[in-house]
Amino acid sequence: MAIQNLFWGLAQPFTGMIADRFGPVRVMATGTLLYLAGLVFMAYATTPLGLTLGAGVVIGIALSCTTFGVVYGALSRVVPIERRSWAMGLAGAVGGLGQFVMVPLSQELQHWFGWPAALILFGIAIAALAPTARTLSDQRSQEPILATAQPTQSMGEAIQEAFRHRGFWLLNAGFLACGFQLAFIASHLPAYLFDRGLSPRDGVAGLAIIALTNIGGTYAFGSWGGMYRRKHLLAGLYLARTAAIAMFMLVPLSPASVYVFCAVMGFLWLGTAPLTNGLVSGVFGVRYITTLFGFVFFGHQLGGFLGVWLGGLVYDKTHSYSIIWTASMCLGLIAAALHLLIDDQPVTRPLQLREAT
By residue range, what is the domain housing residue 62? Predict the structure, then answer.
């Protein structure tokens, strides 16, 4: 999982560049085929290296082609600006619904056919979705001149402009905290609960609850992003996560406390994605949104890598997850403060000056 998060993040800026240059259709179609290849690698892997290549490297790259980094960029171009945040929230909710459905389905397939055959069946089903990518056009939405990259701005200039913007790096740092929290909980929560005396079923049920409540949370935050300032929503979301983790650490551990915690965390789970993407497009425009969000998402996945890796490392050294839970709370507070410092006004990019250069 740590390798998958890392390669997903490393590949995201480059798949974003390709999507902005050639459109999202080819990228998403290629991603589905890579996903099939990665699952085949996993099914027939006989060594740790083979499993790492399949599940970590190939599927990590495939995810950079098929998940919200590319999907949100495509939506930003075809959906009017006043409904864009709602559309991204809806897309995220549909993705969350797919996750919720596929987890129990995968368990049933493994029960009946064994895990190698189940992986192959999943790969075939995913590859069959490749033609659906053609429903995404490369139509550009109309936006005010000051809030969008002009045709005369190159991709390199857009990247340089973003890299010179203080808020871009604040957003990167905040999104790193998000990735750390989510990857740690998704990877280590079942082990933490088992270590504290609860059953493995409680861990599985908790993750299922997260997947379920994430559907409503992503849709809600996406919708709210069209009504309120996104940086304030993001700061509030990170504070709410920190409070939820703190309460989870303070109350006596029981199945009930686990389910309540997972319900709250699930609602706060991926609401960051449409808000962060919307913040990037609101400041820099949509012309190179997939590329710029790809760089921000690298920060998220770097945090995810650290959350998975450090969670295991710290537990091996201390036989406790307390340090990582505390780190998650501290990162949540830092992320909230950083988002409040972001200048979320559209960059000033007069057409006359751009044409003159």
Answer: 2-131+143-341
